[in-house]
TrEMBL record, chains A, B:
It is an enzyme of class 1 (oxidoreductase). InterPro entries: Asp_semialdehyde_DH, Asp_semialdehyde_DH_beta, NAD(P)-bd_dom_sf, Semialdehyde_DH_NAD-bd, Semialdhyde_DH_dimer_dom. This is Aspartate-semialdehyde dehydrogenase. The gene is asd. The lineage of its organism: Bacteria, Bacillati, Bacillota, Clostridia, Halanaerobiales. It holds the Pfam family Semialdhyde_dh. The keyword tRNA processing does not apply. It comes from Halanaerobium kushneri.
């Protein structure tokens, strides 16, 4: 089997480390592996299976002979460095917001629109974590019943904001319990024992960037630019795993049992929906589970063809690293590298 | 000024203690004051201003000469004991679910439907905490623009489940940080660093009782039994203050500025809505604030006349104790005792 030269850019971050773990767990066919981060981390050692890798920073020639570079180092780095990979002949799979709405960059969840990779021009965008887990459910619903309108509310984990954000939640929580001063650096408001109804910056329309990512990325991934979608994104004091509550209007009538059956037959989706036993998806359940978990599936009688449901997924894996590696796998399996 | 003989039933609980505090803060005209709890708490001392009160349990004659009894001891106690107060000639203001949907019992938020108290038959119901804060905003919207449909998502604090639930969140959080075993007693799932998409028990329609309270109580309070409403209620690891995200379809067109102006003129509602300064209502802001806080007010372009907003309020005060005391004040001011 052919092997590939792979680079992970942002290798020391939460998502970068998860990318390395995922490449190993899924036996991605790697020849050379480069781990790249900022100059601050240069020289650090990272163990990958039986290889001891040394963290490099980006220099001239870094990406020569690299086939696939997985990026998770923020959109500034992506904008600057991704073109270098492309010039050197490699493919970028970028976890940042830099190229997601670029018409030349496919925005891909392999189970949903893997086919879009066939048109790639060496830069491929990995969608926003909250969007990825949601479209895994919207796609089968769209195909079987048609989508009419979508109201999204998120309950997002702090790990979506990186390792420092996780540390801040932990430190603030300890300070609260010890009645000490609560220090804020990464979050603009206290996150310990509090929720913050803002993720990413505000835009001119008074929605946050995160909320508009969910709207615009959903349009692009589902190839349905006119689908009415609205979102409210809220950060809650949970460490790992994003929760989402979806209120969906379908085009056509449905039986609730048929929706449950549809999801139970959808690849990488798991139905956990047993009200009698008080079983439904939890965010803590996603720690060692790569599936999108869905439950609380029930008819919404306040509108025609309405449905409510609740889903959770691991925001660092299916929401980021795993999806990026799945894109790489799709490229390899379909001779698109 | 006339003074009244008052009893607080469930005086040792989170809401009961808040009721006593509120009665004092608002100088409710009290003559005799009885503090009542279960036999377990009998004999405990409670300080109320300069009086040292002794906790009593319910016995024959307990409610003789009581004018107003504020109940917060669970619906079992309310069902059993409230009729005794009524027989003795007193008025019950009940914070439990026992009488809320009873057609003979007014279900009242004084700012919204205080007039309903004029028809009281000695038992008056205090609505569910999540419903109270929401109808404070729905009423002015209904009057000015008309309501068409409502999608509710809640982000509810653990204190809504009582003192033991708060203790459990704290204990689980400590255990998590110390890598010790997480013990569950009050919540069916881990609540530390997790969200639970279930509040109260499940009903036959797969909604929870809390979700259907929000639907049915809203219908009753707004006198609009056909208003399409759907709700998803989620417990998050926050101690005090409920957050809610509302997606509202109005009957008539509106200007966003007119909605903000409307709320800013609504009594006991405070608009905190400055995206440029990243200001919006937080749950921790409600600790010493009795108002309903509203922000993130923005047009929802996914539907005609749509609006999204976010609100928070103190679930123990406006959501429970304060609203109950305000009902008592309304009775006194309007000679309805």
């Amino acid at each position: 089997m052919k092997k590939y030269n792979v680079a992970v850019v942002g290798a020391t971050g939460l998502v970068g480390r998860e990318m390395l773990k995922t490449l190993s767990q899924r036996d991605f066919p790697i020849d050379q592996l480069k781990v790249i981060a900022s100059e601050r981390s240069e020289g650090k050692k990272i163990q990958f299976e039986d290889r001891e890798l040394t963290v490099e920073s980006v220099r001239e020639g870094t990406f020569e002979s690299i086939d696939i570079a997985l990026f998770s180092a923020g959109s500034g780095v992506s904008k600057e460095v991704a073109p270098q990979v492309k010039s050197a002949g490699g493919i970028v799979i970028d976890n940042s917001n830099a190229f997601r709405m670029d018409p030349d960059a496919p925005l891909v969840v392999p189970e949903v629109n893997g086919e879009d990779l066939r048109e790639h021009q060496q830069i491929i965008a990995n969608p926003n974590c909250s969007t990825i887990q949601m479209v895994m459910l919207l796609k089968p619903l769209a195909e079987k019943f048609g989508l009419k309108r979508l109201v999204i509310n998120t309950y997002q984990a702090v790990s979506g904001a990186g390792k420092k954000a996780v540390d801040e939640l932990i430190e603030q929580t300890k300070a609260y319990l010890n009645k000490e001063e609560i220090k804020k650096e990464n979050f603009n408001h206290q996150i310990a024992f509090n929720a913050i109804p803002q993720i990413d910056v505000f835009l001119d329309n008074d929605y946050t960037k995160e909320e508009m990512k969910m709207v615009n990325e959903t349009h692009k991934i589902l190839h349905d630019p006119d689908l009415p979608v609205t979102a409210t994104c809220v950060r809650i004091p949970v460490i790992f795993g994003h929760g989402e509550s979806l209120n969906i209007e379908l085009q056509n009538d449905f039986k609730i049992e048929a929706v449950k059956e549809l999801f139970s037959q959808t690849k990488n989706v798991e139905v956990i929906d047993n009200p009698a036993a008080e079983e439904y998806p939890l965010q803590i359940d996603t720690e060692n589970n790569d599936n999108v978990l869905v439950g609380r599936i029930r008819r919404d009688n306040s509108v025609e063809n309405g449905i409510n449901l609740w889903l959770t997924a691991n925001n660092l894996r299916k929401g980021a690293a795993l999806n990026a590696v799945q894109i790489a796998e799709y490229l390899v399996e379909n001779n698109l590298v």
